[in-house]
Amino acid sequence: MDLGTYGFPTPTAKNIISNYDAPEGVEVRGRYDAEFAKILTKDALKFVADLQREFRNHIKYALECRKEAKRRYNEGALPGFDPATRYIREGDWICAPVPPAVSDRKVEITGPVERKMIINALNSGAKVFMADFEDALSPSWENLMKGQVNLKDAVAGTITFHDKGRNKVYKLNDEIAKLFVRPRGWHLPEAHILIDGEPATGCLVDFGLYFYHNHSTFRRSQGGGFGPFFYLPKMEHSREAKIWNKVFEKAEKMTGIERGSIRATVLIETLPAVFQMDEILYELRDHSVGLNCGRWDYIFSYVKTFHAHPDRLLPDRVQVGMSQHFMKSYSDLLIRTCHRRGVHAMGGMAAQIPIRDDPVANEAALELARKDKLREVKAGHDGTWAAHPGLIPSCMEIFNNNMGNAPNQITTMKREDAAKLTEEDLLQIPRGVRTMEGLRLNTRVGIQYVAAWLTGSGSVPLYNLMEDAATAEISRVQNWQWLKYGVELDGDGLGVKVSKELFGRVVEEEMDRIEKEVGKDKFKKGMYKDACKIFTRQCTSPTLDDFLTLDAYNYIVVVHPVELSKL
Ligand SMILES: CC(=O)SCCNC(=O)CCNC(=O)[C@H](O)C(C)(C)COP(=O)(O)OP(=O)(O)OC[C@H]1O[C@@H](n2cnc3c(N)ncnc32)[C@H](O)[C@@H]1OP(=O)(O)O
Ligand SMILES: O=CC(=O)O
Ligand SMILES: [Mg+2]
């Protein structure tokens, strides 16, 4: 395969004709589809290109700064509060008032931008649906473009879906959840759209196309004059929030809508960002509706940030819950910070999902989710996330029972006690043990997740839990770190050291187990062997890859040249 400067397949210019009517300097290399063409109009592409051209250098700089921070952490530095922005943390400012349409966000359902799931999620009884181009979506051209088509139909209120197998027609209820959209993180390119010869920035494509087509209908039908609403993932520093704020301002200006219409909740899901919460809200203060505890990426980021610190190894993934001191401190400080600035402090995702064929296990799983939600509402969170419609009634009941009739707790749960939390609290090493079963489970889950991702599913049920890009990342980086430092698995009394040989055996045995569990036929037809190759390489590489999905993305880029001879 001929790989170009950015590592993506490069068809030569002379044998490609794009059927899309693209503006000057824009080349669309994804499959042509008449439905996609209604999204990829010349004006919409120009809108995206304008954003890309104005912000590409800012984005490149922000990503360079991430590398520089990584270099410092690798040399032993710890993330912490920035003395230069103390005036922001200590200042007495607040964010713009919360739009009435999203004042009550007690339960938010999340899910990929898949047609049936969008309808189910909007009808689920949740207050908000976060439609995901990120952790829950494998960003293939087909998924991304169908996702844009689906969202446009959803905002217009015309979305339907016919499940032919079950002869069931899905359509929207009269009352639906408010829609938030989560674009990809800054690091992911969109290889199917070149702007001035470079892959577009994935999140500007997701944001730009959705915003361009839906802002007007959305503000009228859903937002009560505000919106569209967004979730912003994986930021590491307030300079990245500043770019989003400028993107929003430019988008508002280009479309002639009022400044401050667009609103976004930022996920605090990287370790460096916990020290920047005030600064992030400050940058976005005219466009903010709060922060969210993105707990799974946060755990991933803890390992990644400290990957060169062998004194900060994590115990088994299943033991790193919200009761660990560093996780509790992060949630408490997030609540205090948000409420001080007048915006929502959203809780996170419990990974439990309903277990259909085992009532006892189902009840135990739901009880774990209920406990997690009770902790959140009592701590002062204004709402929470659910991965599945089956969890919404119990989550809603817990938040309603503990918040009375109030839509949120912004003014009633100040959590001033959390002001005393220190850098040490936020970085405290989690307690627990490392086991052979932990290594095996990481491997089994990681490989199966990558196999699903390569075949188009970005969120899957595995061993009765929701797995997505963030949870799979924990499995990957944890294996990498245990291998790198040859840690002793101390939790099961074996005292075995993790080595390449041991890991090789574990991989082989877990592949056998996966084959048995999914069946020979599915195993053969699926992409388990490719997934195993990708996952194993990432766990054993001398230097830690920044993201699992950056490497795996090369496998799902499908460029569609239309050869002149075939026309
Ligand atoms: C770390 C983070 O970033 S968390 C946020 C990102 N992750 C996510 O959003 C995960 C969202 N959840 C999901 O994708 C799914 O619930 C899964 C993959 C975990 C489980 O999916 P399934 O195995 O298909 O669930 P199940 O078979 O029980 O589904 C039953 C019904 O609920 C629907 N459903 C399940 N989850 C969702 C959801 N999140 N949104 C809308 N509908 C849903 C299914 O479409 C199905 O509908 P149907 O009966 O009309 O056919
Ligand atoms: O995006 C959410 C997370 O937990 O990661
Ligand atoms: Mg995340």
Automatic annotation (TrEMBL):
<comment type="similarity">
    <text>Belongs to the malate synthase family.</text>
</comment>
<dbReference type="Pfam" id="PF20656">
    <property type="entry name" value="MS_N"/>
</dbReference>
<feature type="domain" description="Malate synthase N-terminal">
    <location>
        <begin position="24"/>
        <end position="86"/>
    </location>
</feature>
<dbReference type="InterPro" id="IPR048356">
    <property type="entry name" value="MS_N"/>
</dbReference>
<feature type="active site" description="Proton donor">
    <location>
        <position position="468"/>
    </location>
</feature>
<dbReference type="InterPro" id="IPR046363">
    <property type="entry name" value="MS_N_TIM-barrel_dom"/>
</dbReference>
<dbReference type="InterPro" id="IPR048355">
    <property type="entry name" value="MS_C"/>
</dbReference>
<keyword id="KW-0808">Transferase</keyword>
<feature type="domain" description="Malate synthase C-terminal">
    <location>
        <begin position="434"/>
        <end position="555"/>
    </location>
</feature>
<feature type="active site" description="Proton acceptor">
    <location>
        <position position="182"/>
    </location>
</feature>
<comment type="pathway">
    <text>Carbohydrate metabolism; glyoxylate cycle; (S)-malate from isocitrate: step 2/2.</text>
</comment>
<keyword id="KW-0576">Peroxisome</keyword>
<dbReference type="GO" id="GO:0004474">
    <property type="term" value="F:malate synthase activity"/>
</dbReference>
<dbReference type="GO" id="GO:0006099">
    <property type="term" value="P:tricarboxylic acid cycle"/>
</dbReference>
<dbReference type="InterPro" id="IPR001465">
    <property type="entry name" value="Malate_synthase_TIM"/>
</dbReference>
<keyword id="KW-0816">Tricarboxylic acid cycle</keyword>
<keyword id="KW-0330">Glyoxysome</keyword>
<feature type="domain" description="Malate synthase TIM barrel">
    <location>
        <begin position="178"/>
        <end position="429"/>
    </location>
</feature>
<dbReference type="InterPro" id="IPR006252">
    <property type="entry name" value="Malate_synthA"/>
</dbReference>
<dbReference type="Pfam" id="PF01274">
    <property type="entry name" value="MS_TIM-barrel"/>
</dbReference>
<keyword id="KW-0329">Glyoxylate bypass</keyword>
<dbReference type="InterPro" id="IPR011076">
    <property type="entry name" value="Malate_synth_sf"/>
</dbReference>
<dbReference type="GO" id="GO:0006097">
    <property type="term" value="P:glyoxylate cycle"/>
</dbReference>
<dbReference type="Pfam" id="PF20659">
    <property type="entry name" value="MS_C"/>
</dbReference>
<dbReference type="GO" id="GO:0009514">
    <property type="term" value="C:glyoxysome"/>
</dbReference>
<protein>
    <recommendedName>
        <fullName>Malate synthase</fullName>
        <ecNumber>2.3.3.9</ecNumber>
    </recommendedName>
</protein>
<dbReference type="InterPro" id="IPR044856">
    <property type="entry name" value="Malate_synth_C_sf"/>
</dbReference>
<dbReference type="InterPro" id="IPR019830">
    <property type="entry name" value="Malate_synthase_CS"/>
</dbReference>
